[in-house]
């Protein structure tokens, strides 16, 4: 997908480097799993499970690890959907993330998501794609507003 940045000049500081995040559209029927963020960046917004890519990890490995760490769920049929370039210039410290969006399903439909990291998230719920909660975390909001659809056609 495309590049995203605010129309603000990037402050001159010590060397800032982009990070890579992998986030997962975990699908169940026409629903997607979202959690309300507690971190400073995007506090109280709804976001997909995911996190930072670790050295040597594939996108699929990162997706599986992050979903398991955050929700306790095992995933399968994971595939790359798109990539976005996100600048967070209004934060206490500017952030630049290349975000890898993956699509996946649960390995066991009977498993229920658990809040494994309550310091980072208020909890996980399934939401109908046509009736997503607000506010959405900015990178996800941009995807939704662009007409992006994570469901297979």
Automatic annotation (TrEMBL):
Q: Which cofactor does the UniProt annotation name?
A: Mg(2+); Mn(2+)
Identify the Gene3D superfamilies for this entry: Nucleoside Triphosphate Pyrophosphohydrolase
- Stretches that traverse the bilayer: none
**GO BP annotations, alphabetical order:** dGTP catabolic process; response to stress
Instruction: Please name the InterPro entries in this protein's record.
Output: Nudix_hydrolase, NUDIX_hydrolase-like_dom_sf, NUDIX_hydrolase_CS, NUDIX_hydrolase_dom
Asked if the Swiss-Prot or TrEMBL record annotates the protein with the keyword Manganese, the reply is yes
Provide the alphabetized UniProt keywords. Hydrolase, Magnesium, Manganese, Metal-binding
Describe the location of the Nudix hydrolase domain by residue ranges: 17-150
One Pfam annotation reads: NUDIX
CDD domains in the record: NUDIX_MTH2_Nudt15
Q: Which domain of life is it from?
A: Eukaryota
Q: Which GO terms describe its molecular function?
A: 8-oxo-7,8-dihydrodeoxyguanosine triphosphate pyrophosphatase activity; 8-oxo-7,8-dihydroguanosine triphosphate pyrophosphatase activity; metal ion binding
Q: Name one GO cellular component term.
A: cytosol
* Coiled-coil intervals: none
Q: Which family does it belong to?
A: Belongs to the Nudix hydrolase family.
- The protein here is known as Nudix hydrolase domain-containing protein
> To which species is this protein native?
Carnegiea gigantea
């Amino acid at each position: 997908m495309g590049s995203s940045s605010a129309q603000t000049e990037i402050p001159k500081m010590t060397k800032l480097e982009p990070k890579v995040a992998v986030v997962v559209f975990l699908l169940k029927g026409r629903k997607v799993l979202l959690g309300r963020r507690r971190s400073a960046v995007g506090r109280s917004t709804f976001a997909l499970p995911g996190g930072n890519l670790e050295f040597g990890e594939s996108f699929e490995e990162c997706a599986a690890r992050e979903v398991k760490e955050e929700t306790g769920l095992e995933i399968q049929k994971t595939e790359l959907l798109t990539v976005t370039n996100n600048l967070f210039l209004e934060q206490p410290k500017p952030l630049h993330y290349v975000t890898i969006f993956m699509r996946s399903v649960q390995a066991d439909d009977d498993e229920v998501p658990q809040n494994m990291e309550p310091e980072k998230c208020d909890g996980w719920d399934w939401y109908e794609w046509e009736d997503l909660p607000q506010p959405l975390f900015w990178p996800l909001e941009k995807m939704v507003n662009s007409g992006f659809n994570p469901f297979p056609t």
